[in-house]
Amino acid sequence: MTNKEKYDKVFMDCFSVPQDALNDQFVYQCVPAWDSVGHMGMIAALEETFDIMMETEDIIEFGSYPIGIEKLKKYAVEV
What's this model's pTM, rounded to 2 decimal places? Predict the structure, then answer.
């Protein structure tokens, strides 16, 4: 499984959305499941999937699907 597939799977599993929903318009609170609790669950899943520990600032700034891809680069995860 590629990093992109892993990244997409986290979003699909955490927010119960199809892969075609994952685009530049997929942002924090665009679906009811992506609330503050869902956000932390998604962060935990990403940290586990990619064996990383994100800094608080990155967690706060992680406000959309594309921003997440950029944030993961900081942790040497190319999506």
Answer: 0.95
